[in-house]
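Form P-L/3: holo structure prediction, ligand S-adenosylmethionine.
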Amino acid sequence: MYQYEQYRDIRIAWTDDLDGGGGSFGRSFVPVTRHLFGKTGRVFEFCAGPGFIGFYLLAEGLCDSVCFSDINPKAVEMLEHTIKLNGLESRVSVYLSDGLSDIPDSEKWDLVVSNPPHFFSESHEDHLNDLRRVDSQWHVHAEFYANIRRHLNIGASILFQENYLGSSENTFAEMLDRNNFVIVNSIMIDTQRHRDNNKFFMWIKERGDGLWWMLDDTRILPVAATDVARRNRISLPPGKYQIAFANDTDRLSGVFMTKAWDDKGAGRMEGPVQIRIAGIKPGTREKSSCVLLNPGLYFITDDRMTDSFATLDVQEK
Ligand SMILES: C[S@@+](CC[C@H](N)C(=O)[O-])C[C@H]1O[C@@H](n2cnc3c(N)ncnc32)[C@H](O)[C@@H]1O
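OUTPUT (holo model):
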C-alpha cells in the first residue's frame, strides 16, 4: 500500500494522499539547510506527512537526529513504518499531535523545518477536509509561533517553506512580531529538479537569540551593554569593539581576541576559535548585510584590528 523513495541510505514510505510536496519541492531544504546551517543537531519537522524533509536531512548527514509530528494518524503510522524499516529508532521520534500540543516539553530542537499547509480559508471545515493545503484563519501557523519557544535550543532557527500563491512574508509578520520572532532572511530557490517559483523559505529566529544585527552602510552596530548581556549572557564594558567575521582562523592570527564562547554557548574559551557564519565560505571574508552569529561562533577583537567588518559600539544605557 505504500510507495517508496530510496534517498541515499533511507527508504522513505509515502502515499499520494499524504504527500504534501516534500518529495518534490521539499528537496530544496537540503541545499538551503546546508548553506545556512551546515550540520546541525536535532531537527524537528512540523506537519511532517511522510517526513521527506527530515529524512533527507538525516540521510545527507545534515543533522544528528530528527523528530516528526503530524495531526494525521495515517502519516504518523507511515513515519513509524519508515523508522522501523530503516532501523532508525534511536535517532528518530514521532508524535501524533495537533500543532505542538502533544509534544513533551523535554523535546528541544536546533532547527525546525516545515512545509505547512499553505492556504488560508475562513472555514474550519475546509481545513479538516484538506489537511495538507488549508490552514483555516492561519490557526496552525499562529499556534505554532505562539508555542514553539519552549522547544528551541539556544541559537535555534526555524525554516518554513511557504507559497506566494497563498501568503507572503507580510502575512506572518504580525504573528511573528507578537511572539518575538524575526525573519532573518527570505529565500527563493530554483532547483533543476523542480523549477518552482512560488515557494519561498522564511528563515526565522527568536529576537535576541544569539548575536545578530543588521549592518547598515556605516558598518557601525550601536548596541546597549544590557542588550549584549541579554543576547549573549556575557557583559562587555561600554566601548568600541571591532568585529571580524571569517571562518579561517589562520587569516586572523595575531588578532587580539577578547572574548569567545564554545559552540554550546556554555564554557568560555580563550584563544583562537573556529568561526562559522552562515553563507561565508571557508577561507574567505565577505561583507554581508546580515550577519548572524550563534553563541560561541564569533569573537570580538579590540580596536587594534583594522581589517574588520564592523564596529560594535557598546553603549551604556
Ligand atoms: C503541505 S503538507 C506537508 C507534508 C510533508 N511535509 C510534505 O512536504 O510532503 C501539510 C501537513 O500538515 C499536516 N497538518 C495539518 N494541520 C495540522 C495540525 N494542526 N497539526 C499538525 N499537522 C498538521 C497535514 O496532515 C499534512 O501532513
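COMMENT: Residues 114 and 160 are 5 Å apart (CA to CA).
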